[in-house]
Amino acid sequence: MPLLELDHVSVSYGPVQAVRDVSLHVDRGEMVTLIGANGAGKSTILRAVSGLARIAAGSLRFNDADISKARPDVIVRAGLAHCPEGRQVLASQTIEDNLLLGAYIRTDKAGIARDLEQAYAMFPRLLERRTQLAGTLSGGEQQMLAIARALMSSPRLLLLDEPSLGLAPLVVEEIFAILDRLSGQGMTILLVEQNARLALAHSHRGYVLESGQIAASGDAKGLLEDERVLAAYLGA
Fold first, then answer.
1. 124 burial via Cβ count (<10 Å: 0-12, 13-18, 19+)
2. Exposure check for the chain: N or C terminus, fewer CB within 10 A?
3. Is the Cβ–Cβ distance between 137 and 129 less than 8 Å?
């Protein structure tokens, strides 16, 4: 049964229709990637799921509940975490303050302390710099912090928007190794990624968006071998 399901969802910004009649699902424990050209509607779909963009038509279901009209804070409390493009860490706050702010919806102090310890175990560089201001970190370290902060809400579903953007290849490898580890632990992930080949190589399934609509979908291996997808999106 899907953890997340979009049924004929459309999203508009004023007169511009960014997403049109999109249906997709993410099953529990899957890593699913959205690929497509810039402006195809990938980030808009993530924003719609997290309540940051209102849908004009269709419906959204998360964990068997209709969240089509839910506020973002209600969606976060339901178990969804959105790690946005550009990382958006709080530059003037320490790493640890950023992480603790990620757990703002929680009241289980023991659980928060346990998850903070797990975040530092997963991202040792953050532990080394826990009192350092987030704005002084490298781009890769800020991306690690953004992912760790999202995990501090103890989500059922993690939305990731362009985690490799602007990062050196070795850092990208490290980020995707962490995503593999999370996926192996059962975390459900919906990923938007500019590096389509890399994203599909690490995902279970994928959807290809074109001008706000789904142009193709299937298991990740099949999309990697699809000649149309190769030619249009993977540079082959």
1. exposed
2. N
3. yes
Tokens of 152: 């501090």
According to the model, what pLDDT value does residue 236 have?
47
pLDDT of residue 227: 79
CB-CB contact of 19 with 189 (8 Å): no
Homologous superfamily (CATH) of 1-79+158-166+177-236 is P-loop containing nucleotide triphosphate hydrolases (3.40.50.300)
Give every residue of the chain whose pLDDT is below 70, as ranges.
Answer: 232-236
The candidate with the shortest Cα–Cα distance to 141, out of 181, 87, 196, 101, is 87
Closest to 187 (Cα-Cα) out of 26, 54, 78:
26
Q: Is 46 within 8 Å of 2 (Cβ atoms)? A: no
CB 155 within 8 Å of CB 81: yes
Residue 204 buriedness (CB in 10 A; 0-12 / 13-18 / 19+) = middle
Convert the pLDDT of each residue in 51-107 to its tens digit.
999 999 999 999 999 999 999 999 999 999 999 887 789 999 999 999 999 999 999
pTM: 0.93
Q: Catalogue the long-range contacts made by 171-176 (C-beta closer than 8 Å, 24 or more residues apart).
A: 171/139, 171/140, 171/143, 172/198, 174/140, 175/140, 175/143, 175/144, 175/147, 176/202
